[in-house]
Structure formats: C-alpha cells, structure tokens
Design a protein that fits this description.
Chain A: This is Nitrate ABC transporter inner membrane subunit. The complex is a heterodimer of chains A (279) and B (453). With 279 residues, chain A is mostly helical. Chain A is built from twelve helices and no strands. Chain A has a single domain, classed as Orthogonal Bundle (MetI-like fold). Chain B is of the alpha/beta class.
Amino acid sequence: MQLSLGLRAALLSVLLFVLFIAAWEAAVSGGGKAADLDPEYAKLMGATAVTGASAMPGPGEIGLKLWQHVTDPFYDNGPNDKGIGIQLGFSILRVLLGFGLAVILAIPLGFLIGMSPLVYKALDPYIQVLKPISPLAWMPLALYTIKDSNLSAIFVIFICSVWPMLLNTAFGVASVRREWLNVARTLEVGQLRTAIAVILPAAAPTIMTGVRISIGIAWLVIVAAEMLVGGTGIGYFVWNEWNNLSITNVIIAILAIGVIGMVLDQVLGWFARLVAYQE
Amino acid sequence: MFQDPFDPKARLGCSCGEHASQHDHDIAERQKLAADEEARDSRVVDAAIVRALFPQDATRRAFLQAVGAGTALAAINEFFPLAAAREAFAQGTGKPEKTDLKVGFIPITCATPIIMAHPMGFYSKHGLNVEVIKTAGWAVVRDKTLNKEYDAAHMLSPMPLAISLGAGSNPIPYTMPAVENINGQAITLAMKHKDKRDPKSWKGFKFAVPFDYSMHNYLLRYYLAEHGVDPDKDVQIRAVPPPEMVANLRAENLDGFLAPDPVNQRAVYDGVGFIHILSKEIWDGHPCCAFAASKEFVTTMPNTYRALLKGIIDATAFATKPENRKQIAEAIAPANYLNQPVTVVEQVLTGTFADGLGKVQKVPDRIDFAPFPWESFAVWILTQMKRWGQITGEIDYAGVAKEVFLATDAAKLMAEVGLTPPTATTKSFSVMGKAFDPAKPEEYISSFAIKRV
C-alpha cells in the first residue's frame, strides 16, 4: 500500500533530523584525549582544556539546556539576566511597534505613489537611496538623535521594514488592470470609492507580499539592533551568551529566532490567503 | 565715636559697631556661622575620603606623614571631585533627590567596584536603588550616558576627557570621580606559540586590542617597540571586541592579544592560549578604567551623587583587601553581571591562576582597585597618542592633563577652605625600566627609536 505523500514527507523529515543529530554527535564527541595535568592546575581549567572535550556542544547538551529554557522561560534575575521568554517578548513587542508604524506610513504613501506617476517619479530617487541602507548603519545616528535606545531600535525596524511595503503597494496599485478602472469610471464611481472598492482589493495580494517581506526584514533587524544597543531582547541574549562564549545558548537563541520568524511569516501568510482572489 | 543723632544722613549702628544696622549684623553673623559649618563639613568629607582610601589606620598615618596632609588631599583631588563632594555635603545630609539610578558597565573585571556594589549592597547601604546595566560597547556606553539613560557609567579613562573636550561631539563637562582599576590586563598568545616567548620572533603576528584609544593599545605597542618590533610594520594590530578575541584565537585567526580580564583567563580556561605576561610587568600600577558622571548630574543631584560615590568608594576600599576577593568573584560572576565561570573570575581577582603552560602562578596584585590618577598618567597617555600619530602638532600636555583631572578647580577650592594648594600634582614612574619625566614629554617621545613622528 502506498502511504500518502504527506506521511512520506514527514517520515523523510524525521529521518533527515535523526541523521543530522547523529552526524553532529559523532563530530563533536570524537577526538580529544584527557590532558596529563597537575590536579591543582586542572582545577583552574575548563573542560575543553582538561578532558579534551570539543569546544562545540553536542545535541544532547543543547537539548538539556533547551529544556531548562523551555521549562523556565520567564524568570527575572535583574536587568541583565532574564528568561528567554521575556527576551523574545521584548523583541516581538519592538518588532510589532516598528512594523506597525511602517504599515501606517507605507500603505497610504504607497497608494499615493501608485496612483500618481508624478509623485512616483519625484520620490523614486529617495527611496532607491534609502532602501539599501543596513540597519547597523542607522543605529548610531538613531541613538545620537533620538537619545533613547529603545526608541532607536524601534525606529531602525521602522526604517528598514518600510521600503518593501512601500514599493509593493505602489507596484500593486499602479498595475491594477485598466479595464477595471475604466469600468469604475463609466459607472461614475468617486475617486475615494474607486480606491477603496476597486484598487484596494485588486492590489491587496501584492501589498500583502510586501508586508510579508517586511516582517521578515523587521525580525532580521531586531537581532542586530539589540546586539548593538543591549538591554533586553533576543539579540541582547545572543550578545550576552557570546560574551560568555556559551555556544550552547547561542544555538538555542538561533533556534528560537528561527521559530518565531516562521510563526510571524505564517500569520501573515494566512492573512495573505484571506485577501487573495481568483481572476 | 559719637554720631550726631540729628544728622539725617547718620546711620544706625549695630551691637558690635561694625555693621550699618542690627539687621545687617544678623545677616553677617549667619553668614559667618554658615562658613564655619562649611569648613567643618569640608573637613568631615576630606577625612571620610582619606579613611575610605586607606581603611587601615597604620597605613593612613604613614602615608599622611610621608607626604603631608596638604599634598595627600591634593592628590585625592585628582581623581575625586572634593569640590563637588564638599558642596554636596554643605547642602546638608538630605535624602537623595533620586533613589532609582541606572549605571552602565562593560562586562570585564575592570568594572569590579561598580558591579559588586550592587550584589554586595554598597549602593543600598547608602539609600540608593541602583540598577547596573550591562552594555554592548564603549560607544554605546558613551551615547547612553550622554542621552541620560544612564546616570553614571563605567568608561575607559580617556573617555571622560574626550567628552569634556568635545572630541567628536559637543563638549559636555564630565567628571571622573574615581579610577576603577590599576593593572589587570595581560598579553595572551595562542598555544602554538608557546615556544616563541621572545617578542623579537613575533614578526608577522596578528594581534588584537579592545579599542584603539585604550591603555591596551599603548601598552602593547610600547612592549613590542621596546623589543624592536614595529607595531605598524612588523605586526598587525586590530580592534576586536573581547569575546571575539578568544574565538579568533581558537580559530587561529589571531596570534595574540592584549586584553582586559576575564578574557585572558578565559582563553587559558578554554585551553586556547597562555598568558605571556601580565600588564603589570610592563608598567606596574598603570591606570585603566574609570567611573564617570556628567557634571550636570553632579550639580543638579548633589545628594544622590554623594551617596552613589560613597557606595563606589566603599566598594573600592572593600575590593583592595585580598581576603575579600574570593567573595567578590562569587558575587560578580553570575549571568546578571560578568556571566563567566566563577573559577575564571576568581583566578583574575585573587591572582592565583593557571598560566596556560601548566604552572599555577601567584601574583596577588594582578589587578588592584585603589589608584591615584596622577596628572603624569595623562601626560604619558598623550605622549603615546602622539608617538603613534593619533594626535599631531603642538600639544599642551600639562594643560590637557589638568583639564582631565580638574586640578585647577581643586586647587582653587583647597585655597578657599584654607588648605595649601599642592605644588606638585605629578609623580614619576617607569615603564619597562625606563623612567618617565612628565615635565619633558617631547624629549620622552624623541627618545624612542620606533615612532611615527
């Protein structure tokens, strides 16, 4: 009997995962002999120096640590030591704020650009120059002028996530089919009503694509921004564990960043399907 | 003298006859009383500071006898704004204007007094609720202090100077009330170089320092040049954030670094490097990091400032005692502060450490916490900045040094409270056996074979 495609894919996924973990475990557990050390001296040294353990943690070690984080995600031991749940919460909040501001600005402005070739041509050079600027380049300027590290991080997310939405909105609005607009004109529909009843639904799938790209960028940016300003958030968590050379925690943070990024993307993907239409 | 009572221009006298009226007399009396109180308060402040610096009576007396009280206070003035402290005291022992404070730090052992004052209760003892906040880098510490997210912060000792002088931004008057640590750095090399202990064999090496404008950079350059290795031509020196130093050493991307601890000890702990020499072997007693606050903070919140500084001075005095070092290591090692294994921090603070070559070394003064930031320290730093081309042209060495350590203000204030301003605010010292005369900086620079001027 042939198993369904979904089940076979799931089995293959599990197999790949097991192979990957096994290869990983084999790679880090091999080699390394215990060094011949004076016991007093050995007490002052770490495991990698004494037992010849690999500097790279194995999957077991990471699983154990991950379990600790998952079971106690919201502890708070002062400003520099908070659970991974709290750190992720701060990051998500910042992303949603910066991203929300970007949506508020980008969609109306994108509409304007898409509807008016004049505005499009006038603003295009600015957009082209501002679009490729890295978040890390904005950060010092933001810190210096805004004078608040939290607001600076939000600003950087805003400025980096605004462009894909703006361009996609403009593109979607500009490429609404002429016939539909002509029909609206024949029916003597007002400008505003045309925008809301004809252009918006027609451009919605393109706009949502831009929004989805933007949230991905915003989530990429937050880690870099928080590594730079410190304080709280998953980016700060990575930086802090990097200071401690704790590769285990860095890997766990990478996993967490990946999972949250996926969730954010899926949520917007669901929204995108809501507004999709079949011609 | 008898005045004509019928003269309309005659003035009414007072009881002592020196004032125009009884009212004026009362005002003068009150002023005199206040001045007396002020002088007494100044003495109280001075005594408290001297006691905090030299908690042991015998040491304090020996020191005061050796240099005289005036000179001692002058010296303390260098790194402790006595003026501001006295002013603060004069306003009474009022409650702090603000009890919730934020102090930023970089997670290295140089920040020990600032950090330990939190877990060990030195801040709360003085009625403050201080949050010590780990910060990602020197530039961020600077920005967050300038934009008032932090009330005070841990900085590299040249930073308050740069901010005061307006290097790179609008000048903002800064004070450097305490130097954090002396010594406490080291040159660490990758394990593969354990047979290359002679710096002459280091040509082609790649080195790292944490910051271009740091004692680390100047000490490494000095050390290399003394051994005939040109730090710009024969080797490469880059600025690398401390945690990346250990990773790069492991990846054989670096041959060595001169870094703050616990980075050096961490490299040993992880088995990727060994400690070639401690920075104290280059210059015993060199300054490194500082505790800094804006002048605005000092003047607008004198009570808070006094309490904060008391906490830091208290902690510094506690940290100078070797018997307390283990306890401090345990307090500052957790994730909330340095986020390092306790044994690494303990090895740095106690000076009993594995050197990476199989020996346990005992150097109790590997790091220390009661420094005197003499003006001559600043002059030395300036000579090295000029030597390596970081600054050019005519430099008013003594003037800049004075500006940093606010010695002019201090001298003025000392005279006001009846002390004799010091005639000398510098001391000589030697770096790698070569004596430094702060009065002749240009001659010092030209005496080096390897230089960029």
